[in-house]
Amino acid sequence: MIKFIKSIRNMTIKDNIVNFFLYIRFFILIRLNYGKRQSSKNKTGYDLTFIDEFNEISWDYDGFNKWKVGEVFGLYHPDKDNVYYSEPDIVKINNKSYGRFKVEYKPKIFDDRLIPFAVSLLSTERSFSQQYGRFECRMNLPKEKGTWPAFWLWGPTWPPEIDIIEAYGKKTGRTIKTQRASIWFRKNEQPDNLGSRAIELQDTDFHEFAMEWTPKSIKFYTDGILALQYTNKKKLDGTYNKPNINMWMVLNHSVQERYVNRKESNYYSEFLVDYVRAYKKF
């Protein structure tokens, strides 16, 4: 069943109406197996500006490769003491390579703080950022409780932030099938007021999550099906703490401390990534 999250406050009436019908349409099409789970590298009207198919290690801790391990503030978030950032790895399945993003119990001390879980996080902060275009990631979803996979954009300030896919395992792991896409424009406001929607997928198989960003709209796609549009001119034209700056990509796994105890030494979760791509219109 589609989970339709109300966000009337900063959505246009048109967007709310259109999105309501988009989710009904998505609900029908995804169950008819209409969605394309993998798209072509070549897209009409676009130049390919970034690609990683995870055939080899393409990251380091300095960020001079395609990806940097960790975020702008370092290898752990100053306000979160349950996870620190670590590398994914490459795994081969049936002669196909994937990036494996993990959460595992590996306690480590940072600045006299014992942090229990190592989580895979990569960003293109130092190698690639872009204003507008199409951004896509094909990945599967983990099944464990408390899991938190995400593919998102942000830039030299926060906000803005555009979350292309976030999913939460919560108490049992079953809710991981609910994809959340959201846009953050200004501090001290929740994204549900700015265009967040959630869509229930059928399974935890591979899905392509994508976003097309122009000066006039932000549109989210799942398996090639348009799932959400956002066209609030006041927000998109810069009147309201504009998102219209170069933004880099972040791809990560994490764990929700509310559902996974810091001392759960046998806890492990992973998801696989087929590819990440970015495009720019020409």
The appropriate CATH architecture is Sandwich
Task: Give the topology string: H per helix, E per strand.
Answer: HEEEEEEEEEEEEEEEHEE
For the CA atoms, what is the radius of gyration? Answer: 18 Å
Gross morphology is globular
The chain-level structural class is mainly beta
**Main sheet, how many strands, which sense, barrel?**
17 strands, mixed
What do you see in this structure?
The chain is mainly β and 282 residues long. It has a single domain, classed as Jelly Rolls, CATH 2.60.120.200. It contains two helices and 17 strands. It has helices at 13-31, 233-236; strands at residues 46-52, 59-60, 67-69, 83-86, 89-93, 96-110, 113-123, 133-139, 150-154, 161-166, 178-184, 197-200, 207-213, 218-222, 225-230, 248-252, 268-281. It has a 17-stranded mixed beta sheet that branches. A hairpin with a 4-residue loop joins β13 and β14 (218-222). The chain is globular, with a radius of gyration of 18 Å. The protein starts with 12 loop residues before the first helix and ends with a strand. The model is unreliable at 1-8 (pLDDT under 50).
